[in-house]
Each structure stands twice: as structure tokens, then as C-alpha cells.
Amino acid sequence: MKQHTVTDSPYGPLTLVAEDGVLCGLYMTDQRHRPQQETFGTRDDTLFAEAEEQLKAYFAGELQEFTVPLRLNGTPFQRRVWDELRRIPYGRTRTYGQLADALGTPTASRAVGLANGRNPIGIIVPCHRVIGANGSLTGYGGGLERKQRLLDFERGAALF
User: Fold this and answer.
1) Measured between alpha carbons, how far is 28 from 15 in angstroms, rounded to an integer?
2) Distance of alpha carbon 96 from alpha carbon 105, whole angstroms
3) pLDDT digits (tens, 9 = 90+) for 33-66
């Protein structure tokens, strides 16, 4: 059974979705690959206290690694990519090719990019930390402006 809530952030409203009480989605407004609203279940603002508390600490620059339990629904390859995303240190970036290498599939940078784009739990699973081989910002479901802002925020917060 799914439930959801909407919480404010410096990057706009975030929709948090839980399945059987475990966070399975974090979506921004106007996000590419955002599921239809009716798939989020009923609204329940009581289930998300831990996730909201960690997000608040993250946006305050006080949290660099999330520990909220997650349910990452996807293919086995997607889940491997999303697990690897969680290994990218706060304030740092990796290229799609570096992620493919880390997964033992050096020729799969495009597949890594597709899996990255389907990440259902943005920010907490930090797909914004992935950049193009030449260092450019490429693709981000929440929009390139948000991606740049998140990277700038982390780089700035990591300095202090």
C-alpha cells in the first residue's frame, strides 16, 4: 500500500512516496519520469518524519549521508546503478563512464545514464552528482538548473 506527502525544500516542493511504510519515491515538480499522481496512494503526513528530518538537515548543510530506509524498485541493473550512486561522496561528482567502470561494465555508460535518469528517489540517491565525461552537466530529471544548484550547494557546504 502506498502513501505520500509533500514537503517544502529550497528546490521546490518534494513529493515523498512510501510503500508499506518504506520510502520508495522522492519526486520534484516537473520532474522527467515522474509517475502519475494517482500512483502515489493516499496522503499521509505522519509516515515521513524521518525522511523529512534528514532532508531538512541536508538542506541546512548538517547531513551528508542519508540513512533513511529505502525501497528501490527497478531492474537488477538499475538497482546496482542506484547503489553505486549512493557511494559518490557528498560534494563530489562522477562521470557516467566512471560509474560504468565501478560496476564492472565499462562499455555501459549509456545504460548507466538511462538507469540514472530513472532514479526514483532523487537527492537521497544522489543522481545529481553524475556529470558528462567532459565535466559538463548532462541530463537531470529535475532540470539542469536544479542539478547545478544542488552541486553548488554541496560543494559550498563541503568547504565548511
Assistant:
1) 6
2) 11
3) 888 888 999 999 988 999 999 999 999 999 999 9
127/51 Cα distance (integer angstroms): 18
Asked if 48 and 79 count as a contact pair (C-beta separation under 8 A), the reply is no
The torsion of the CA quartet 78, 79, 83, 86, rounded to 10 degrees, works out to 70
Q: Taking the CB of residue 61, how many other CB atoms lie within 10 A of it? A: 13
Known catalytic residues are 127
DSSP 13-76: -EEEEEETTEEEEEEETT-TTPPPGGGG-EE-TTTTHHHHHHHHHHHTT--SS--S-B---S-H
pTM attached to this predicted model: 0.91
Greatest Cα pair distance in the chain: 44
